[in-house]
Amino acid sequence: MPPRYLSFRCSVPWLILLLQALLLIRSFFHFPDVSDTYSSSSSYPEFQDVTHMVIFGFGFFLMVLRRYGFSSTGFNFLLFVLGVQCSVLAEDLLVFLTGEQNQVDMESLVKAVVSMTAVVISTGAVLGKANPVQLIVMTLVELIFFYMSRWINGIFLEVPEHLAVMHVHLFGAYFGLALTSRFPEPPPGLDKNRSTPKSELFSVLGTVFVWVFWPSFNSILAESKKVEAVLNTYLALAVSAVAAFMLSALTSKDGKFRMAHIRSAVLAGGVAVTYTAHCKHPWIAMILGLLGSVITILGSHCLQRCLNPALKLQDTSGVHFTFGLPAVLGAVAAVVLGVVERGIETRWNELSSLGYAAFYDIGAFCQTISTALITGLITGLILNIKLLKAVHVSKYFDDQLYWEFPHLSVGF
């Protein structure tokens, strides 16, 4: 039996068992009864949609590599089921730190699932380069840092709780970018990091799942403006999808559609409208959807050819231009719309208060990105210690290190 397999078998199962035992003990001594925990179920349909989106949608979305399909879906599910339990406990601790009533209910579970989206997005940046032990450690560390960022935004920058949770796209994308910069680059001759028509098809299937359920994701924490959030998100997604096909044909050398463009750009509208989903004017959401697709497709050209080689980044799934750049666009739009709305309410008579509010909004977004970059670099250094047995660069993007294949002669 290969020594690498022995090392894998002696580390991953026991780490999972240890974490699950600790979570079970912590839950036994702290969580309330089931009847108290799930007393409210009004948001369960949206909760189901978000769960489908994260497990099915992102699980298939990450199946872009030709020899990493089992790991993309399997590890995504493992990280989700472990991470949600950790996230529920972190959510409970955050409620305790903010001085609110300490209880676990459906809203707490919803926020835990939404917060796990940051981890799933970051996983796409290091896809194929991190082993399961590294991914589990990354999940735990990233959740801690994300909740710390949420706490800072809520306490010091006065960000509403439902908006602070929605910083998952910004945090997850830039945490993943900083994290992947700490991993060695694969050798030039390695071709396992490319896609095939079959892997692209599965990835687009995941994109469709995410696209369908994104209105529920943006509206699940909206207290009194769920209808506006659903409508604006759907319109933004629709416009971004139309723009994706148009721009893909215009930017391709032969004038044909590129599946990589469609896979990334159709989601840009949902990301860009996250912070402004409650807006009363649907045309603003449609403009954001259009601009999101433009930024995604043009950004993929510029970043892959210029920025990524210069910074030695290998963003495996393109999370920067799929989630990071549209989230930055949405943050800028939120600041501008916030100033305009407050200005109209006060008839532009309190310019100092407008500047003060805009300063807080900008500070919250900058704090999120800065914390994500700094903590991502720190986490990257942690994941590369010898104890975690980093994968050799020649073994990147390969399922056979972790999964059993009864018929190796059959390609996938």
From TrEMBL:
Signal peptide: none
Keyword Membrane found: yes
Primary localization: membrane
Topology relative to the membrane: Multi-pass membrane protein
Localisation per UniProt entry: Membrane
One Pfam family linked to the record: Ammonium_transp
Domain (Ammonium transporter AmtB-like): residue spans on this chain: 40-387
Biological process annotations from GO: ammonium homeostasis
Gene Ontology molecular functions: ammonium channel activity
Entry keyword set: Membrane, Transmembrane, Transmembrane helix
InterPro entries xrefs: Ammonium/urea_transptr, NH4_transpt_AmtB-like_dom, RhesusRHD
Domain of life: Eukaryota
Gene Ontology CC entries for this record: plasma membrane
Name of the molecule in the record: RHL protein
